[in-house]
Design goal:
Its main location: membrane. Helices cover about 80% and strands about 0% of the residues. It has 21 helices and no strands.
Length: about 500
């Protein structure tokens, strides 16, 4: 992850897969909930904004669109800041921005001020929390990472089920200005979540061994090379390119059904409360599907092929949209929401897990920034494009068919691209060991071996002692690398 705080320490620090990692997971759960649910939750204030500012519904809809655009489109900026300052300070500053935006919006006198405060400032604050939280989760979990991703992703439906009723209650008692003020205070919890993102440090024993080598003092005096703020070398990875194309295509249709399903029910002449219940059904199923998908993805027989599980989830989602387009009554829409919630939860739990598996820990912060930037374009094109199709045809069937075809196409792009374009030949143990080491780890290991050779070549007691210490250090480093190689061989999540 370039220069991120979590990677600035000495190499060889293993993911604890627990311990403080569960606190990091709790913080990531809250951040994911705020990031994905907040753009939808603020929509409960739209009617009051329309009345107070004398604007149209399409004008207020830009608030959620700008929020999502900032969340996705500022990915590269977040990557640069994380690689420069680290995850914890970026998240805490992001929490202040998210809160400040809502507080300033409560004093707005026109809709443009709402765009700037709620859309841009709060959206930027949420983006500065969302991406670093995923990076830290990836650093703290390895063996249990699929489960951790599934549990963190469950924050989205849980927060949506809580924030929407809360927003309605605040609007009823305090109006939209009081509601924005309270929500601004609530977003200060992002700072507390950021404080949980403690950088991983090596054990005391490994630190003592590192300091005991004669090269340690020389290494401290040596100027450190400047680290890349945004690592564009990831675009040379064919697996990353295939994933980015597939994910961008998927996002074109993924968010369309939740946006239009309530209107679809109303178009079939069902009352408002009954129509809104469809989203609740979808959210509850989604809430349980995400951690369940994480458990399945973490199974030893499934994890090496998680890219194909992700492809299946996308095909499941796309086929659900296509079949759901034929629904003609409320019961059909309920069945659609149940299956869509299952497939939507699977996609949500697996999308970043697969990306982590493709690019690895070192390049994940840059990779996710570039992926989110590409998805930002799709997010801005997908739902509005579906709306134009609805205006032209006046038939929801075509909207759902288009969304289903886009998501299904992305599944085939990912699965066939992985199967046909990526070399899957088995690697010998030495190659696996080399893959398990980063460049800095190889450099440190070679340096220690050189020190060991120098120590053995000298006859003085001091030299022999240094050689002995270096030998112990080298032995422990080799054992650590072997463990990493075995772990990489057993838990390779994808052939990408």
């Amino acid at each position: 992850m370039g220069g991120a705080v979590v990677d600035n320490g000495p190499p060889g620090v293993k993911a604890p897969d627990g311990g403080w990692g569960w606190a990091v997971l709790a913080g990531c759960f809250v951040i994911t909930g705020f990031s994905y649910a907040f753009p939808k939750a603020v929509s409960v204030f739209f009617k009051e904004l329309i009345r107070d500012f004398d604007v149209r519904y399409s004008d207020t809809a830009w608030i959620s669109s700008i929020l999502l655009a900032m969340l996705y489109g500022t990915g590269p900026l977040c990557s640069v800041l994380v690689n420069r300052f680290g995850c914890r300070p970026v998240m805490m500053v992001g929490g202040l921005f998210a809160s400040l935006g809502m507080i300033l919006a409560s004093f707005a006198t026109n809709i443009v001020s709402i765009y700037l405060c709620t859309g841009v400032i709060t959206g930027l604050g949420l983006a500065l929390n969302f991406q670093p939280s995923l990076i830290m989760l990836n650093r703290y979990f390895s063996q249990k990472r699929p489960l951790a991703n599934g549990l963190a992703a469950a924050g989205s439906p849980v927060a949506l089920c809580c924030l929407s009723p809360l927003g309605q209650t605040l609007q009823y008692h305090f109006g939209w200005r009081g509601g924005f003020l309270v929500l601004g205070g609530l977003l200060l919890n992002c700072c507390a979540c950021g404080a949980l993102m403690r950088p991983l440090l090596p054990s005391r024993k490994s630190q003592e061994l590192e300091e005991s080598t004669p090269m340690a003092a020389e290494e401290e005096r040596k100027p450190q090379p400047m680290k890349k703020l945004l690592d564009f070398s990831v675009v040379k990875d064919r697996g990353f390119i295939i994933y980015t194309i597939a994910a961008s295509t998927m996002v074109l249709g993924l968010f369309v059904p939740p946006v239009f399903v309530v209107s679809y029910a109303k178009d079939l002449h069902y009352e408002d409360t009954k129509s809104a219940l469809l989203l609740t059904i979808l959210g509850v199923v989604d809430m349980f599907a995400r951690p369940a998908s994480g458990l399945i993805a973490g199974m030893k027989c499934i994890r090496p092929k998680s890219v194909y599980l992700f492809s299946f989830a996308m095909i499941f989602n796309g086929c659900t949209d296509i079949i759901g387009s034929q629904a003609t009554d409320y019961q059909g829409l309920v069945v659609f929401c149940i299956f869509f919630g299952m497939s939507y939860g699977m996609v949500g739990a697996l999308q970043f897990e697969v990306l982590m598996a493709i690019v690895g820990t070192e390049k994940f912060s840059s990779a996710i920034g570039l992926v989110l930037l590409m998805e930002a374009v799709a997010v801005l094109v997908g739902p509005p494009g579906a709306g134009r199709l609805l205006d032209a045809t006046d038939n929801y069937m075509y909207v759902f068919l288009l969304a289903g075809c886009e998501v299904t196409l992305s599944a085939f792009v990912l699965a066939l691209g992985n199967f046909l374009c990526i070399s899957r030949k088995q690697e010998d143990p030495e190659a696996k060991m080399e893959m398990a080491m980063t460049a800095s780890e190889r450099e440190d290991l070679n340096r220690v071996v050189e020190v060991e050779g120098d120590g053995e070549g000298k006859e003085e007691p001091k030299g022999g002692e240094n050689g002995k210490v270096s030998g112990v250090k080298a032995g422990e480093e080799v054992m650590m690398v072997k463990e990493m190689a075995e772990e990489a061989g057993e838990n390779t999540e994808t052939s990408l």
